[in-house]
Please model this.
Amino acid sequence: MDAFAALGDPVRAALSERGFTTPTEPQRRAIPPVADGRDALVIAPTGTGKTETAMLPVFSSLAETRPAGLGALYVTPLRALNRDMRERLEWWGEYLDLDVQVRHGDTSDYQRSKQADDPPDVLVTTPETLQAMLTGEKLRKALSDVRHVVVDEVHELAASKRGAQLTVGLERVRALAGDFQRVGLSATVGDPEEVGKFLTGDRGCEIVEVDAGTNVEFTVTTPEVTEADERLAGELATDPEIASHVRAIRDIVRENESTLVFVNTRQTAEALGSRFKTLEEPIGVHHGSLSKQARIEVEDAFKAGELDGLVCTSSMELGIDVGRVDHVVQYNSPREVARLLQRVGRAGHRRGETSHGTVVTDHPDDTLEALAIARRAIAGDVESAGIHHASLDVVANQTVGLLMDFGEVDIRNAHDLLTAAYPFRDLPEEQFRAVIEELSGNRLLWLDEERDVIEKSGGTWQYFYANLSMIPDEETYEVYDISSRRQIGTLDERFVVNFAAPGETFIQRGEMWRINDIDDDESEVNVAPIEDPAGEVPSWTGQEIPVPRAVASEVGEMRGVAEPQFAGGASRDSVAREFANRYPTDVHTAAGGLEGVERHVEAGHPMPTDGRVVVEGRGRSITLNAAFGHEVNRTLGRLLSALIGQRTGSSVGMEADPYRVELEVPAKVDPGTVIEVLEGTDPAHVEALLELALKHSDTLKFTLAHVAAKFGALKRYQGSGRFGADRLMAALEGTPVFDEAVREVFHTQLAVDETADLLASIQSGEVELVAARDRTPLGTGGQSSGRELLVPENADASVIETIKDRIMDDRVILLCVHCREWDHTTKVRRVRDQPECPECGSTRIAALNPWADEVVSAVRADEKDDEQEKLTRKAFRSSNLVQAHGKRAVVALAARGVGPHNAARIIAKLREDEDDFYRDILAQERQYARTQSFWD
Model:
């Protein structure tokens, strides 16, 4: 009651009317300092009244002062949260005679105009809409009255460029309104002091933290396969293991009134949703690639009790109001502690109620990882936010924003305002001036060097309104049901380019669809519904959630604990019982997680742990067993692939997961080579070596294109779109655009400092580095664990037929490498069983991709450079295959991502069924799609 005593009489009267008798823990601790006008960061579990914690003191202040303009801004990262917040705050506004409104991208022009003429007392908005508001004359006047800003889900913004942009936006509001109170809200923050500085510009912040781990209960389980699951597997056209997962989740949903089932990818959401649809279970699907209408429909149906469960991705993580949630299921490891707490925190919204969550796992890595995360969540060991410091594209964006505010700005004053925002506090003035010169070159502003000011130019206005958001502009294709012309969702451009073709099938909204046609001009995919349990799930290119080093290292530590017990003859169940005492799980689940560890010990291999790296290999495949998480392993993999590639003159394929780095290497490279490189690379050179290696990567090219767009630089290089990345990179190297693209890749995907430290630890002997004599159970464990378990491994007859038809209709270049005079482009179906050259009669015919003109030129060149030599060797390997295997080789080589090496491997397999040949091609195409971004 003491907390409520800090509020004014009108608000206390409203509390009585609303039935608030006792403050929750965060309200008890945070309302007094917030009511006192102090900046605050409130960290507390979902459902503990954080919104009221921040807004009751704000309402109290507004009811007393009655500002002429906008008194308070409530900033949320999602439009859907805007709707929820307005509904939640409107009652208080009506009772206190305060106007609460929402403004975002979908707000009508009429409503915007009304808000400008007669500003509400409280405006709920998004970071991007705040950017637009700062440029309007009437709204700038309204913003000059702002006294309070509440930022919801502040952890989500702190980790993104949207958040970095918002911090400068708040400094622009401060330039209008003077100092105002800032309150941040979040359910999970790993580094509260840092996020507090992010929120306030390092001006001091009251941190109120209610430990989320004390209010949650977790169970980690791997379902046992039963006879009923064997029968269910037949009904679902899948294997019994997957059927057991579906059954276990279905049973949890049935046991509760309302359950959210979180998954990590949209593919899994669609695949799992389709299984429940087959079983006619009242369980919907919700993710960001569904249309807004489809999302609202399932939200409303769940809220009304028409659906008992909702399979969802992070789209449901941030507290969209779907009514009461009794239980949360997390399917597969949540990958991060913060994610598990955020998701399970959605369950149990009654005061003081414990949130219950079940993590369903499906393979040993997944299980041990989930156990580590659950233990760390209970202990409150949450990951840091990962603030983007000095992101130069945000500097560019906000410099143009300042010109929209003022028309003309002194450069030093602009630098002062930018560096008042915490992510830019260390931005050197010299670097800021380099950004200004780049913007001037792109005609987004005028630079008056004599007066040391910048001014609006003809391109300022157009650029600013095209770049209100820092979210990258990626093209999406809208998916329409041709029978009803209703939009059912969207597909990523990369999926459409790589996989989609008329006749192919995929799952969306839990239903099967067959592609009728693709309209590239309108960016539309027209589909028809089918009843078929197999097919390709849309492979959206949303980044995989990275497992942090601390979590992966705990998995390594678990292996280290179990190893001596297994070596001493202990049974798996007895070791599992010890783990079940330490972690929130049962003996069966713990035993499943330890299966690979036991087999590894039985085979007599050295155990990869948090203090030991084990290198193994056979043939052209080498695995580095390293329990250091996604980012360190990805960094190690890039470093090794670059240095080994430099040694051998050949490209090296790389794929990384949290526990291993898999390399596909040239002949004569063995585990000893990898050990030599790790022991001989100076840790101080890691950053420079990686920057060199990145110049050849698709990852940097893809990032560079998006950063260049945010600098307004792309229009200078028209024509250098998807196929002009090399030209764009050459043009921008040495500019702030290139520097920012490198910084972003380093920040979001790599862990340079941690990897350098790991190398130093290996070289000092602190971390042991050993070679295994052969492939090991743990080293090969990742090859099966990464697959999409819910997609049938064997494609059915209709899918095989689709692949055959597609390859037969693909074009190939046939090139005679004997006379080098003849080449011919044709469809695969028109190629003879044994192609031969009409000029010289030779059967040494290479089959090449239709865009491989540079290979043809290389083969015909009299004098060749290194690159041309490499292309010529590729053509000769292709011709050897075609000479030996005829049209079968042409078919294999025409598949996506299948070069001569993989084509030879596919052709060499003995098969009873011709369809298996196409299944192997499909498997290789899927593998290429997964690893494409790692290949030079």
Observations:
- The longest helix spans residues 629-648.
- The radius of gyration is 29 Å.
- Residues 502 and 560 are 51 Å apart (CA to CA).
